Amino acid sequence: MKQVIQALGTKLAHDQISDNDTVRELHSKDETYQQTSLPDIVVFPKSTEDVTHIMEIAQEYQTPVTPFGVGTSLEGHVIPYKNGITIDFSLMNQILEIKEGDLLVRVQPGVTREQLNKELKKYGLFFTVDPGANATLGGMAATNASGTTTVKYGVMRDQVRDMEVVLADGSVIHTGNLAAKSASGYHLNGLFIGSEGTLGCFTELTLQVYGIPEHIVAARATFPSLTNAIEAVTSILHAGIPIARVEFVDEASVEQINKFSETNYPVKPTLFLEFHGNESGLQEDLAFSKEIMQDHGCDHFNSETDNAARNRLWDARHNLAYAYIHDYVGKKMMLTDVAVPISELANSVIYAGEELKKLAIPGGILGHVGDGNFHSLIMIDMENEEEVKKAKQFNEKVVQYALERGGTCTGEHGVGVGKKPYQRVEHGAALDVMTNIKKALDPNNILNPTKIVDIDNEDKL
Amino acid sequence: MKQVIQALGTKLAHDQISDNDTVRELHSKDETYQQTSLPDIVVFPKSTEDVTHIMEIAQEYQTPVTPFGVGTSLEGHVIPYKNGITIDFSLMNQILEIKEGDLLVRVQPGVTREQLNKELKKYGLFFTVDPGANATLGGMAATNASGTTTVKYGVMRDQVRDMEVVLADGSVIHTGNLAAKSASGYHLNGLFIGSEGTLGCFTELTLQVYGIPEHIVAARATFPSLTNAIEAVTSILHAGIPIARVEFVDEASVEQINKFSETNYPVKPTLFLEFHGNESGLQEDLAFSKEIMQDHGCDHFNSETDNAARNRLWDARHNLAYAYIHDYVGKKMMLTDVAVPISELANSVIYAGEELKKLAIPGGILGHVGDGNFHSLIMIDMENEEEVKKAKQFNEKVVQYALERGGTCTGEHGVGVGKKPYQRVEHGAALDVMTNIKKALDPNNILNPTKIVDIDNEDKL
């Protein structure tokens, strides 16, 4: 590793390279229960050229490279299980260009979503994708992140027009162009997004943004049972109402919200909703949705047009994972993340809820039910082997249930190492195609090894 | 080739294999000016198993394989320049399942979009993507087709949840799942869609469908100049109005429409528009759009809510290419297909219009301007070498103009052979990544060779 540090020193400034223990420790983990592992070196590139140099050196010395944003991933994506070099993109955090006339922005990968939205607000624009964490846009692209607005605006993959990517050999490509659509060549944008650092490092992203909607109404609706709430969502989707957000939060999670965000929401199965549009269209959507929810037993409905009140509601929702973490000091968070076809949603959530009860580990169910995606969040005592085992079995059961019904093991968090055991059963022979692509683009397997695919079974955890 | 026919005969019925001259001739061309080339054999599979057998035999005898829908492609995609086997999917034309509750349908690749929509109508559903031709859904997926509703609903790639694909070695994979979103593994759906038969043959598709909107208004607006019309579109997009269709048709093309469709539209630069939504929201969108268009000099605005009148308007638009073909018997159609960022749209269309005038070849400009995508359609006398040369130079100029402004050489028709000369300049080093993927998935280059990428420069046309 000395040689690698020496080689890096010929290309990067001294303060861009660190083998300090604290720095390494900070780059040994993400936000969940996955086992930690230290990088040998952490580097802080300031430019695409820096990244190219790093990749060339890594290739020369066959050193694993793991890209790192702010470490908010949830399946161990950024944990360097084969050690080597971690590339921390925090110094590449510039918003390079806001192309108002094209509704596009060009950013470096270390820009966070909140940083971008703060800047966009000055132009009356916003970036739609909002995972709970204030993640970097590079990380969000790497995991194909999504969030509460996905039901209307789509996932990360839908927002990216172009990326600059440094490949395993240090060469630099662009994966797309700036037009709204293209049928030119293979869809590299789509391939690299969600590749979790296993095919290349993103050094620049051009993203689609939207005008802040003229009219926004947020709402909260409570139901006598989980089943009622989820069935209401299914009916809203079937009615084709262009809802902008529809989030489910179970009773245990409402309690956590109330504690952490100092709200006073009734402790009942709850939907958080939002509507965007022109004034009259929105009122009609709102009224129709309310009617549908009442048909499904909604016992309390409360809507907010005021900006501050809306923000408070969504901050409460976004802080929910942290609310659990805050309340269970010393425990680690595990999240299931299945997504299922709409017709299977109600039964899947009921199934997960019942299994969660049996588990007797603290946790709750929440999620982006408009996309058929929900999380069972559980707080595990990692010292308690029995509990860890039970939690893993629970995860497996929920995934198995979803896969048997045409769903996916991960709707939005990505594979990392946590969902790798389910890749073969989910993808079948298609996993071999993925492996072949990985081998073609990273023949020495230096890009975030151990994630998504196994190369020659050598890196099974 | 005799051996190949013999081998095919052991797996397929006699009437599923043809080397008849008329059949081969029908599979030697598409709808445009590209040079024709005959397949040696045409096969008609009835099942995935049949396709697997065909691929295994093709692999064994190193015979090129070209998939064929109904031959409506526009860049020579289905023309077998290396001869070999053409797989005609017309017998795989079953709608396998309509999953109303999931807003999904499962179809075989030979189902056409009109066939699907006719069936979906019974359920109050529709499939959004509408290229001019009544193409097969397999072909539309292979070229990442789009059309007039893309501005609201997206391209083909946005509609596909899952595909069954037979790979070069005959193995069968699924590229996705049935959930609305997924972050599991590499995005094979996205990669295979738009791969134009070069990575595999699609044998089944699961597609997203929508409820037929409750309220639809179509409209026609005329403008004193092309510039006014295009700038009106740019303003509508900037205003964030969720318009469902916005098509530009120039004066020459309106004349063709009037002749072919027996309409009596004023011969002026025209926008055809459509709005979908709830009643009051739609009225507000319509009024706002009208106001914007009037600000841009709109001198005639006419809206239609009646179903028959709307259909007549859109049929006229969809038949425009045929109108030209019908009027210029013996000539061949060439289409530019660039897409550019919104801010470049007006200037790009003006530039193409001016170059088209200089050309003095019959044609017009039309297109899906809401996506920044437009076509210059020209009718070429293929016997006139000078005209062919001038037409190719024109195509090149328009593409060059778009690429210099961050656009793409093809918004929706795909690469085939017609847009292959622009792949290197558009994609740069990314073309090598595409080539590596092709080599990894089709090492013997038997899948639709000569299309999209050049393998070892051996198959340059």
Q: Mind explaining what this structure looks like?
A:
2 copies of one chain form a homodimer. Helix content of chain A is 37%, strand content 18%. The first copy, chain A, has 461 residues and is of the alpha+beta class. The first copy, chain A, has 4 domains: 2-88, Uridine Diphospho-n-acetylenolpyruvylglucosamine Reductase, domain 2 (2-Layer Sandwich); 95-211, Uridine Diphospho-n-acetylenolpyruvylglucosamine Reductase, domain 3 (2-Layer Sandwich), CATH 3.30.465.10; 215-322, Alpha-Beta Plaits (2-Layer Sandwich), CATH 3.30.70.2190; 328-421, Alpha-Beta Plaits (2-Layer Sandwich), CATH 3.30.70. In chain A, the strands form 4 sheets. Chain A has a 7-stranded antiparallel sheet, sandwiched between helices. A 5-stranded antiparallel sheet of chain A has the order 5-6-10-8-9. In chain A, strand 5 and strand 6 (104-107) form a beta hairpin. In chain A, helix 9 (226-238) crosses helix 11, helix 10 packs across helix 13 and helix 14 (342-359) packs antiparallel against helix 15. The radius of gyration of chain A is 22 Å and the shape is globular. The relative contact order of chain A is 0.12. The mean pLDDT of chain A is 96. Chains A and B meet through strand 9, helix 8, strand 11, helix 11 and helix 16 of A and strand 9, helix 8, strand 11, helix 11 and helix 16 of B. Chains A, B: GO terms for molecular function: D-lactate dehydrogenase (cytochrome) activity; D-lactate dehydrogenase (NAD+) activity; FAD binding. Chains A, B: Keywords: FAD, Flavoprotein, Oxidoreductase, Transit peptide. Chains A, B: Its cofactor is FAD. Chains A, B: It is an enzyme of class 1 (oxidoreductase).
